[in-house]
Design brief:
Structural class: alpha/beta
Radius of gyration: 21 Å
Shape: globular
Strand content: 25-35%
Bound molecules: flavin-adenine dinucleotide
Length: 388
Amino acid sequence: MSPTRTSDVLVVGGGIVGLATAWRAARRGLATTVVDPEPGGGAAQVAAGMLAAVTELHYGEETLLGLNLASARRYPDFAAELTELTGHDLGYRRCGTLAVALDADDRAHLRELHALQQRSGLDAQWLSGRECRRLEPMLAPGVRGGLRVDGDHQIDPRRLAAALVTACERSGVTVHRGWAERLLVAGGRAGGVLTSDGTEWGAGQVVLAGGSLSGRLAGVPAEVLPPVRPVKGQVVRLAMPDRARPLLSRTVRALVRGSHVYLVPRDSGELVIGATSEEMGWDTTVTAGGVYELLRDAHELVPGITELPLTETRAGLRPCSPDNAPLLGPTELEGLLLATGHGRNGVLLTPVTGDALADALTTGELPEAARPFSPRRFGATVLTEQPA
Ligand SMILES: Cc1cc2nc3c(=O)[nH]c(=O)nc-3n(C[C@H](O)[C@H](O)[C@H](O)COP(=O)(O)OP(=O)(O)OC[C@H]3O[C@@H](n4cnc5c(N)ncnc54)[C@H](O)[C@@H]3O)c2cc1C
């Protein structure tokens, strides 16, 4: 076995959540290591990057709304700081979102969402079908109405991930390309990990940020293993060749006969169409049926997409928790913290997560806004000793 290397904080998982956590921890003066075979990979390579606190509102998720809004408010400063440090353009666009309906049922559903948004004090404006098409002329004539939400923005998650890798490196984070095979626990506290090359990485605190794999790290006592599961999402990418006149000027999303579809136009000319939502374990196969449904629904919304070159199809895994909210901060196992379970909002929640974890790592406490998301809400009980 190789000799032990030590740091204050070791982050298992270099997706956007783990990287943001490591960057923010390093900025607070903590010696930080990230372990991941492919830092900057993960779900961000597939995600659309909608920063959609308002249009993603669901019944029963009002607490999550508070965290989503807190993160959305942080985005301008977070993105500016990241760009200044790394020189990376993040594709951060404050272009707004239009959520539309194509038939009476979908319109009724959207009206209900609007009522919920209004009760929650959110800014969303109801538009007629004609007003929707005035904003986005390429929308199908059948659009029956919609919601204009100027506060829901977008970022390019691939660029965000690449920038976070650079930010970590520039902030002195040690990035180790390898798998964490096992959490090391001694004397009733987490003390590091053993990596696939046989190295022991000791650490004062360990943050488990392994996305949909977070519940599978060996050595984590069963009582604190996060209840996170993968939810597969397939996505199609098209190219809008004429960048001067993009097909759409803002994100357009819709319910089409009950299934969700969105089209996210980037400044780069890329048009992202997503996404399916499938409980298929860790399978990331792109299927004909998935691609067909996305293109069929997107075509009903914006018929002109069929003219565009298809450049990529891909599937990724959302790390989902039982209540669709993340698990943040200290666990019942001393020295082990979680930053996982961000589900469909992980890109949006990256800034607030990085800061909340940095607070918890330096003070032992989560900030007020993050407290409802403690892993302890899932009722961890007394810990039993794990075999080494
Ligand atoms: C199709 C799709 C569309 C999406 N659209 C949006 C959107 O529009 N807006 C939004 O906000 N969010 C969106 N999301 C969600 C968002 O992408 C995720 O919530 C977020 O990327 C999760 O980041 P993460 O770092 O927690 O996990 P991941 O991206 O899964 O990264 C986890 C990392 O941990 C590493 N890892 C795991 N176990 C170990 C181990 N034992 N040792 C070392 N490394 C390990 C993995 O290699 C991986 O790199 C979407 C997701 C999908 C799939």
